[in-house]
Design goal:
Elements: E1 11-17, H1 24-32, E2 39-46, H2 52-57, H3 60-65, E3 69-75, H4 80-88, E4 95-97, E5 104-105, H5 109-119, E6 125-134, E7 140-143, H6 156-160, E8 171-174, H7 175-181, H8 195-203, E9 208-220, H9 232-251, H10 257-278, H11 282-294, H12 300-310, H13 312-336
Helix pairs in contact: 8-9, 9-10, 10-11, 10-12, 11-12, 12-13
Length: 337
């Protein structure tokens, strides 16, 4: 495919990475083959202990020959958001995207998104479709787009309520919108990611554009952060982090902060109740139930979960009574067919 000649807008790509020796080459090569090459690539090594540094630095000459600005930063391991902040302090592009280190871009990914933003000035951010690919065969395993919500331009609430995707590499933002939200060039630092910090505040001041095209490939890894098995304590700690991320994001958003802070507390108290019920943690169950009740946020489902866990004998007996009724209904449905 023909390269875009003399593009005007510089695009900054910032990628944090921890121990990416098995997959980082795909992202690096996908940047090199972009048909749009006025790119500034900032790679932040988050204290990797494998051969990530050697692999990334081996591409330096190729980036320079392609006319791509290449910046390598090494920091001690602090998590992705802290690593991203290193790049946010120095990037110079008119547009910004921050793909994960184990994913990669299609060759027209940057060109198509720049073209959209250059021709649609009313949007401060946009997103595209993306595909899931197998970690070794790279065969397509599905698409990230949500058919119901992918065309929505007002995604502020959709992001918060997790009705739509916030996969970082599917998005591109205008840098001036980022500076409007974060004039200090720094997002809230957490080990639970950085996408809400980046996307929620900007989506509160702008519509989100959409390109109905697969421009990003997400590697389906068995060892990925989101697939880790976590203990009860780790799950609860993660919930605390997500809660803190959202509260900070709403502080930087154009919204009723107190209203959304309340929604955050309500959302995660409800999630804690479900975690406590699954793991039979009566202390957390009682604590979060009382919190919801005191704030008059209890739902029927919350009451049912609480009752089942507090009164196991009655609940189990009730389920035994219902069992033959359910079996009978199922048999009747089968006979009707």
């Amino acid at each position: 495919m023909k390269k875009v000649e003399n593009p005007l807008a510089l695009v900054s790509i910032i990628t944090p990475c921890y121990n990416g020796e098995k997959f980082i080459h795909r992202l690096l090569e996908s940047i090199l083959i972009q048909i749009y090459q006025r790119i500034e690539f900032i790679f932040v090594n988050d204290g990797s202990t494998d051969k990530t540094e050697d692999i990334v630095l081996s591409y330096k000459d190729q980036f320079e020959k392609a006319g791509i600005v290449f910046i390598y930063i090494l920091q001690e391991n602090k998590g992705q958001a802290a690593a991203l902040n290193q790049g946010l302090k120095i990037f110079k592009g008119k547009y910004l995207t921050w793909p994960d280190s184990d994913d990669y871009l299609t060759e027209d990914s940057i060109a198509d998104r720049v073209k959209f933003l250059e021709n649609n000035l009313e949007y401060k951010l946009l997103r595209s479709n993306g595909i899931y690919v197998h970690e070794t065969s790279l065969k397509t395993q599905g698409r990230i787009s949500n058919a119901k919500h992918r065309f929505g331009e007002h995604i502020f609430n959709d992001l918060f309520f997790e009705r739509t995707y916030c996969c970082c590499g599917c998005y591109m933002i205008r840098s001036d919108a980022f500076f409007e939200i974060y004039p200090e060039r720094q997002i809230y630092e957490s080990r639970e990611g950085q996408n809400w910090q980046m996307l929620i505040p900007i989506s509160s001041i702008s519509k989100c554009g959409y390109i109905d095209k697969d421009l990003y490939c997400i590697l389906q890894r068995a060892e990925s952060h989101c697939r880790q098995q976590r203990s009860v304590e780790e799950q609860l700690k993660r919930i605390d982090e997500l809660e803190a991320i959202l509260i900070d994001a709403f502080q930087h958003s154009n919204c009723d902060y107190n209203q959304y802070k309340q929604l955050v507390y309500e959302k995660y108290a409800r999630i804690r109740i479900r975690i406590a019920a699954r793991h039979q943690n009566k202390d957390i169950l009682e604590q979060q139930y009382r919190f919801l009740k005191d704030n008059k946020w209890l739902s029927k489902v919350d009451r049912l979960i609480y009752f089942r866990e507090k009164h196991k004998v009655i609940s189990n007996a009730y389920q035994l009574i219902l069992l033959p009724i359910r079996v009978l209904r199922k048999v009747k449905r089968m006979l009707k067919k």
